[in-house]
Amino acid sequence: MSTRADVCAAAIADAFQDDGEIFASPMGLLPMLGVRLAKLTSNPDLVISDGESLFLAGVPPLFAKGDVVEGWIPFRKVFDVVAYGKRHVMMGATQVDRHGNQNISAIGDWAQPKRQLLGSRGAPGNTVNNRTSYWVPKHSPRVFVERVDIVSGVGPKLAKEAGPAAARYNDIHRIVSNLAVFDVTGAGDTLRLLSVHPGVSVDEVREATGFELDVPADVPTTREPTTEEQVLIKEVLDPKGLRFKEVPQEEAQP
Amino acid sequence: MTKGPRDKRMSIDEVIAELKDGMTIGIGGWGPRRKPMALVRAILRSDLEDLTIVSWGGADVGLLARAGKIKKLVYAFVSLDSVPLEPNFQKARQEGTIPELVELDEGMFQTGLRAAAQRLPFLPMRAGLGSDVLVNQPWIKTVTSPYDDQEELVAVPALHLDVALVHLNRADQHGNATYLGPDPYFDDLFCMAADRAYVSVEQVTDTAGLTVDTPVQRLLLSRMMVSGVVETPNGAHFTTCTPDYERDEKFQRAYAAAASGGDEGWAAFSARFLEGDEAAYQAAVAAFREEQA
């Protein structure tokens, strides 16, 4: 039986398996692990970077230096790729709402927030230009809220309301949490439960979510990583177990 | 004797003397990377006030916010990378001490600088549509394509600057300048968006020295974009200035701890590091490094 972190890594890898030859842009540790896992298994055509300014030809372990460089991707060229569209970003989210809007800007009123976070960063541009997914390491009603305080990342409903130029390339693909996997194809462009991780019940996910989820009659269990994937995660990509800092080992169910 | 282009070398104080209350100042670099920190520290020591600061923000924004220098801030994010949230910026936002704020998508920011650099009132862009960037900045308008598609896009307003401050690795005395690290960031755009641009560098070399050991493509700034050149060794500290030096993580942690604590702790940090001139700062940093070793 694999750990919860390994299940999450495989679910993230699955989010990138059909992307073809595009720039996979993971923000955070588990997304980086999942993207590299996808590149070593289901989608070797993925283009990956060191998170700074270099495209890497190989698939190095997390935070390793010294891989062969296959390209240059300084920030100014990242913005070109965003507009070009051949990119799939997986961002974090301090809040995600029922309509797949995301907030990383601030909590509370924008004019004088209760808690200032990063600011909108590239979320507005990402979500109207290229495929976007989210990773939530601690699924709770504080993250999954009815309505985000500030819309940084734009969900499909708001994109449609903003007109064809906003909706044309809006593509919120997957939301992966430590409990489950979602997309935004529920009724009225809402969050729909795609699968629950092994050992997690649908009711548990409902209780940890601050709005009514679209739940199909039959909810499958998120797949277990294959033996090959488990070896790649444990021996190659993350031998130090950094993933357990985001999703603790104890979360794995017997 | 043949005439050459003029010598633009200046001191830090001479740059600060060119700045006025109420100016719009663009600060180059990115987050905690290659920021013109020696010039930012000099603004802190000055009596300048009511500044509009335009920055992909790091500690430059945090320090100026804590000192009450900012009347208006144009930003897309403020981060120290290894410390994700900038404590002085957080404090200023949560206490409401920055009177005017403009929060953009980080790509809109580049487009705004491009518009200013091209002397255009705006440039169209998709970023911002549907997001609260347009809700919280209701003065940002959209523009409709005059062609058959009739797409309605964001008309990103030009981010025109009175002054740009940037830090690079090397320059000659005329203002030709190279970055030697992996990313130019947007320092050329900052300079072109500004009426006047001042570049601080690790080292001033002769012109031939700029391309001795690095490709010509690294010459980011031409002297026609630059009004003044200041030699400030370690002048990006505590941000990165690859390959001359990397971020001073220990110092950044001390900064972040002081900024997140009470006023007393901040006053002590400020007294130790920020109240003397640049030479005093560098001496205090050297002493700090020895303590930590």
TrEMBL record, chain A:
InterPro entries: CoA_trans_fam_I, NagB/RpiA_transferase-like. SMART domains: CoA_trans. Belongs to the 3-oxoacid CoA-transferase subunit B family. This is CoA-transferase.
UniProtKB/TrEMBL annotation, chain B:
Gene3D superfamilies: 3.30.30.40, Glutaconate Coenzyme A-transferase. Keywords: Transferase. GO terms for molecular function: transferase activity. SUPFAM superfamilies: NagB/RpiA/CoA transferase-like. It holds the Pfam family CoA_trans. The keyword Ligase does not apply. The keyword Transferase applies. SMART domains: CoA_trans. This is Acyl CoA--acetate/3-ketoacid CoA transferase subunit alpha. The lineage of its organism: Bacteria, Bacillati, Actinomycetota, Actinomycetes, Propionibacteriales.
